[in-house]
Amino acid sequence: MGFVPYQLKADSLFIQHPLKNDLVFKGTIDASNKDTLVLKRIDSTYLTLVPLPKKEKDSLHFDQVVLSRSGCFGTCPIMNISIHRNGSVVFYGEKHTDLIGLYKTKLSPEFTNYLFKKLEDIQISKVATSYNVGHTDDETVFSTFIKNGKIVKSISDYGQAGTKELLWAYKATLNLYKQLSLTSIPIHKETPKLNNIYFDKGAKRLLLGKSETFLLWLAIQNATITPANFEKEYTFPGGYYATNPKRIESDGQLYKVYLKNGHITTYDIGYNFIEQNFT
User: Fold this and answer.
1) Which is it for the CA torsion 243, 244, 249, 251, positive or negative?
2) CB contact at 8 A, 185 and 82
């Protein structure tokens, strides 16, 4: 997989368009040395390219990133992708994507290292947790960064108003599934279909973004079904934010799901998702 597909034809540089397969003329090489590339563009102006300065390492570290797209008032994709530093990828296409369903694959170590190096350029400790472009009917991109199974930061970006490093991450990861050879994963028919959900505990409410909800959904998809009883601490009352659950009760580790079809299943995900990530 090429990181930046390009071609040199004589002294002319062509770079592949990020959304198409077309090669786009960028200019003729006027001069170059170890640290500088000068291009003469078609309008006779010059473009000088130099290496970006090295950034300080961020104080927040992560070994997994999850990105989710909410959809919009139109045909924006609704999807989720999880990428781990070990190279494992899980993709879930929900609507308006080339692939619908749950899939997995493995990235090469070389590309994984490249991708995480660019993701680290976001410097998540220094960016805001929410961005908003200021108009309506657009999509929200949710990003969640995880270290050793614990969420360290989540970001919601309505209308892609975030930093240029965040925008690069969207382009590099959200369409990655189109370039990979994927293996289908069966979805258990009783697994609840969730969107941006929340849990109530007394008068308090915990809101989960779409990428955080996807993490929980994956945990439930991989959980053990158990007959165990438990004392509920958290309740999700269903409604608009869930397609098929009527209600979910939980102590953080066990999730008792009441489906609209009358089926009731308790899932043991093996750890307390809420305490681990939100307390």
Assistant:
1) negative
2) no
Task: Give the Cβ contact number of residue 15 at 10 Å.
Answer: 15
Q: The tokens 């170059």 sit on which residue?
A: 32
| Rounded Cα–Cα distance for residues 69 and 238 (Å) | 21
Identify the H or E element spanning 273.
helix 273-278
The verdict on pTM exceeding 0.90 is: no
Over residues 122-174, the pLDDT tens digits come to 999 999 999 999 899 999 999 999 999 999 999 999 999 999 999 988 988 98
Within 90-246, residue ranges assigned H as helices are 109-120, 164-173, 210-221
Tell me how far apart the alpha carbons of residues 81 and 66 are, in angstroms, rounded to a whole number. 6
Rounded Cα distance, 194 and 238, in Å: 9
Burial of residue 166, with CB atoms counted within 10 A of its CB: 0-12 exposed, 13-18 middle, 19 or more buried:
buried
Nearest to 28 by CA among 19, 18, 20, 38: 38
**Nearest to 68, CA basis, from 186, 173, 193:** 173
Q: Distance between CA 68 and CA 213 in Å, rounded?
A: 10
Token pair 């990020």 is found at: 18
Q: Where are the beta strands (DSSP E) in 186-253?
A: 198-201, 204-207, 224-225, 234-236, 245-250
Which DSSP symbol is given to 221?
H
